[in-house]
Design goal:
CATH architecture: Orthogonal Bundle
Distance between the termini: 30 Å
Strand content: under 5%
Number of domains: 1
Number of helices: 14
Number of strands: 0
CATH class: Mainly Alpha
Largest sheet: none
Helix content: over 70%
């Protein structure tokens, strides 16, 4: 029991150091506050704007209205409230970004960590399969899967997840390779720990820093990819509010009523930018050179 306690590699106070370093980055803190605000609006969207009457119900008399006290961001070409559609659409974009990242990260970490730990033929097989899939451009692979399965929430989730797994596998393998050779891993093996316990109890927790940073930046990429699929008509279909489909519907009015297109476009830009800035802030906070 004493030996198992000695091989715990996460130092005390490490999490507190990361939080303190992160809080010193003002840009990252502002981005985090904006992300929390977007998350709050997405969670309580039903209480802020009624879904049926404001988001789905069409009112030809109110079509293409500019921003006002009644409609903060104006209305679209069907007379629907743009503010309501933007905050309800945030649910889908955040769902795609977070859910697809968690699923693809889980699969990628298992494959990448196992490949780095066992090495040899198993590592070669996993990496060659990963390289083969990565030869196909991300958006093209996602579009192909979406085209086969048909447009919709489930198909788009599967398409983006499958397209994201190879990059996470390669990233996890590269990070884990730097941990596998550490002394505490050899000590765990000497203690008779099982391979699964070593991978999930010692290797992945000590490689979690770079993985989390990559996750935050990957969420931004997935949000833009999901919007791109919906923009091309392969994602969530109207009248369901989704930022990509909203942008696609409004492009014909961009010159005459730019606010209709800018609402969804700016929402995508701000959300993706904030995730990237938070990821940069975490990278700086986890950097060993900044640790006390």
């Amino acid at each position: 029991m004493k030996k198992k306690k000695e091989i715990r590699a996460v130092p005390k106070g490490h999490f507190a150091d990361i939080c303190r370093n992160f809080s010193e980055n003002k840009t990252a803190m502002v981005a985090l506050v904006v992300l929390l605000l977007i998350l709050f609006l997405a969670i309580f969207a039903d209480f802020i704007v009624d879904y049926k009457t404001k988001v789905l119900m069409q009112d030809p008399r109110m079509r293409l209205q500019p921003p006002s006290l009644e409609h903060w961001l104006g209305t679209d070409n069907f007379g629907r409230d743009l503010f309501g559609r933007v905050i309800h659409g945030a649910r889908y974009s955040l769902f795609f970004g977070i859910a697809c990242t968690v699923i693809s990260l889980t699969i990628g970490c298992i494959l990448g960590a196992s490949a780095a730990y066992y090495g040899g033929l198993f590592d070669s097989i996993i990496m060659r399969l990963t390289d083969t899939v990565m030869c196909i451009p991300f958006l093209l692979l996602a579009l192909t899967i979406a085209a086969v399965g048909g447009p919709g929430l489930r198909t788009m989730t599967v398409a983006i997840t499958v397209a994201s797994v190879p990059s996470f596998t390669r990233m996890a393998r590269s990070v884990v390779l730097s941990v596998v050779s550490c002394d505490f891993i050899e000590a765990a093996k000497a203690c008779g720990s099982k391979d699964a316990a070593i991978i999930f109890g010692h290797i992945l927790p000590n490689a979690i820093g770079p993985i989390i940073v990559n996750c935050m930046m990957n969420i931004a990429g997935i949000i833009m990819s999901a919007a791109g699929l919906s923009y091309l008509g392969m994602g969530i279909q109207p009248p369901t509010p989704e930022w990509g489909s909203m942008l696609s519907e409004s492009m014909q009015y961009f010159r005459t009523y730019p606010h209709v297109a800018l609402c969804a476009g700016i929402a995508i830009m701000i959300t993706a930018l904030c995730f990237n800035l938070v990821g940069d802030g975490l990278a700086d906070a986890i950097d060993p050179k900044r640790r006390s």
